[in-house]
């Protein structure tokens, strides 16, 4: 945070500032009855037979190995999703392994390392932090 003339302002990375500006424009245009511009994630993806078969294959691999994967240290959950490389989503469906904290392979025993691929399906290890159960 930066103090400017008695006002504290957040400092943003250039890409974060750009995303915030784009969100602000979309909100303003929707408030004025205009249609906001489409973003890639707004475009529906239609699935062909091949993609549908791939979804079924990935889901069956998840179901088959979920219990085993959840036994790895630090693993909090498993889901299916698109693989992310350097914080950019790809269109490759994979098993997303949710961990409390990502650690280097060099700090793990060989049997504690999550495989990069399971039955031909890529894995993507994603750090989610500590999960807390909230009182209601």
Question: Describe it for me?
Answer:
- The protein has about 140 residues and is α+β, with helices and mostly antiparallel strands.
- It folds into 2 domains: about 10-40; about 45-125, GMP Synthetase, Chain A, domain 3.
- The chain is about 30% helix and about 30% strand.
- The protein contains 2 helices and 6 strands, in the order E-E-H-H-E-E-E-E.
- The strands form 2 sheets. It has a 4-stranded mixed sheet, covered by helices on one side.
- A hairpin with a 2-residue loop joins strand 3 (about 75-85) and strand 4 (about 90-100).
- The radius of gyration is 20 Å and the shape is extended.
Write the SSE topology.
Elements: E1 2-4, E2 7-9, H1 14-31, H2 49-69, E3 75-85, E4 88-99, E5 117-118, E6 121-127
Parallel strand pairs: 4-6
Antiparallel strand pairs: 1-2, 3-4, 5-6
Which key terms come to mind for this protein?
136 residues; alpha+beta; two-stranded antiparallel ribbon; GMP Synthetase, Chain A, domain 3; extended; 2 domains; four-stranded mixed beta sheet
Please give a quick description of this structure.
With 136 residues, the protein is of the alpha+beta class. It has helices at residues 14-31, 49-69, and strands at 2-4, 7-9, 75-85, 88-99, 117-118, 121-127.
Q: Approximately how much helix is present in the residues?
A: 25-40%
> What sort of overall outline do the alpha carbons produce when their principal axes are compared?
extended
Give the mean pLDDT: 79
Structural class assignment? alpha+beta
- Sheet-strand content, in percent, reads 25-35%
**Terminus-to-terminus distance:** 33 Å
> What CATH first level of the largest domain would be assigned?
Alpha Beta
Largest sheet, spatial ordering of strands: 3-4-6-5
CATH architecture descriptor text of the largest domain: 2-Layer Sandwich
Q: Order of helices and strands, N to C?
A: EEHHEEEE
Largest sheet report: 4 strands, mixed
Catalogue the unreliable spans: none
Q: Which value, in Å, is the CA radius of gyration?
A: 20 Å
Number of strands: 6
Examine the coordinates and then state which fold CATH places here, giving the name of the CATH topology of the largest domain: GMP Synthetase, Chain A, domain 3
Count of the domains? 2
Number of helices: 2
